[in-house]
Amino acid sequence: MMQYIRERATSKFAKFLFLGIIISFFGFGGSGFFSSINDSTVAKVNGEKISTGVLSNAYTNYLQNSGGVLPEGNDAKIVKKQVLNSLIQEIVMTQAAKKMGVVASDDEIRAAIKSLTFLQNADGQFDPNLYQIYLQQQGLTSAQWEDNLRQQLTLQLLVSAIGNSVIITESNLEDFAKVDREKRNIAILALPLEQFAQDINVTDKMITEYYEQNQSKYVTEPRVKLAYVTLPEVDTDNVSVTNEEIAERVHAMKAKQQSNETRSADQLIIQFSTEAEKEAAIATLNKVYDELTNGSLTFEDAKTQVTALSDGLFYETGVVKRSENMQSVDQALFEMAKDEQFAKPVLSENAVHLIHLLTVNDGSDISDDSMMADAKTALLKEKKEALNAENIQRFQEVAEKNSESLDLIAQEFNIEPIKTDWLNMTSKTGELADSNTFQVATQELVLTGGKNSEAYHTDNQEVRIVRVEAYEESRPLTLEEAKDEIQETLAAMETLKKGDQVITDMNEQLKAGKPLEDIAEAQNIKINRFDGVEIRTIVTTVQDQPELIEPLVKGFEVQKSTPATLNAIAANGMLFAVMVKDVIPGSLSEYTEEEQTQLKERLKSDMAQAETILFIQGLYEQSKIETYQVPFLAE
């Protein structure tokens, strides 16, 4: 089957497979949960429809699982299309699994549910009560949720089956080892380029011709001269607060803490469907309440009694915050006195609840002295921030009145403007390295309009106003201006050309059968020999000669030739001649048993992923997939 798929694989598949092999399908919220007969169709896969509602819900689930960051504009459209492609992939694979008879069994579904940590109690055991509460929160029946889970597990089984079909042979491992542990004998000759720089003659004609052919390379960088003033820090050493201000703030803090009060509790719950069941539940929990409050029953025993009932549950509320629109159970929780342990049973829509108060957090445990200290600190901070804000506001107001003069602003605040030399706007030198300064200095009114900038914060939070003193746009360099640079470039090119010719001559001698040793000796060049070097050990091999790293890497990029040939590479002011003298394939015997095991697992994983991609690609090629432009995709 895999061979059939490989033979029919085409690039059409690439249009759909954006996110790799997505088996989770956005958690337990895939396409199985959402449908509406009124939804517009966004895609069809072999006649099976994907509605806009399905896509919208899958998109929402994807955003929640990826941190809840909401993309905008074109980014949102891209993500929506990626989510749609994943839904298409899910359906294609589900259809294939059905045809192949692959399906997750009931035992596998049960095992998967029991393994979910959020459905386990403190002892790590599956808790049926937590399962029922979770289903209620999701608004699903167990059959609905388990059907969707079966679909996800079935797809995982399908992918696992493909992966498990991969067989890594000894030959596969040997082939990999031959390349991975390959060793090479390499010779490197180092020729200083400066020795070829003698007698280089760059004529005016050469410079003119090069300039005419490469004028676009020779332009000035846009540059600017700036002047700026930085707002001095305001003196806040004499800021103080009164006892009356502190007392008022403490009172406000206490009121806020009370309004933000949180509580946590346990609940014993009995659910009901009929009036008779409701009355029975109320009677049962009233009896439990009386026994708890008179001390004849412990809460643990009450919990055992209630959860033994067919409709009985135990529930931990977690932290609940006081709010205006609380449900009846939460209202009862916050009506309890702080020293009360239990509240009389209270009704919700379909259950009776007995509340066991655990914690109250209303700030009452904070001492007055601590609260007064916090109030004083906060007030001092606020007053200092207010002074700084007033200072900045005044700075801005003075700037607005004197938008064409930096000196008048400086005089108002008794400071001196700072002036820069020319700053390169492309490389953002000097003050332009500050991102905010660059941003305001390049605003049209500031850059060319002769206006000061508004007050702004620099990257290090200084408050500054900047003015452009002079500005030069990028322009083509004249021949005269570019002459020195061109002469240097041509001299380097001619130098390298002479060096390359030397290496070419050496290769001619090698072809004629002359030994490399004799050729190097005639040129008075030392040969750097590296025998049995591996690509992964290059850095440690030449740690005392780092300039040879690039030539050695070059030695692993070229093929061995017969007769052996010198390959030129210029780096670090040198011209290197690199020769591959021999290539020794690696062997599996060079790996330890542990390394061989890891290698086998790695290759199997890589090949399994490749086979899975080819499998899905083949499914796409054999499927009829239609997509439609709907408003949701364009929003």
From TrEMBL:
InterPro entries: PPIase_dom_sf, PPIase_PpiC, PpiD_chaperone, Trigger_fact/SurA_dom_sf. Its main location: membrane. The chain crosses the membrane at residues 12-34. Pfam families: Rotamase, SurA_N_3. Residues 273-357 form the PpiC domain. Keywords: Cell inner membrane, Cell membrane, Chaperone, Membrane, Transmembrane, Transmembrane helix. It is found in: Cell inner membrane. It is a single-pass type II membrane protein. Belongs to the PpiD chaperone family. This is Periplasmic chaperone PpiD.
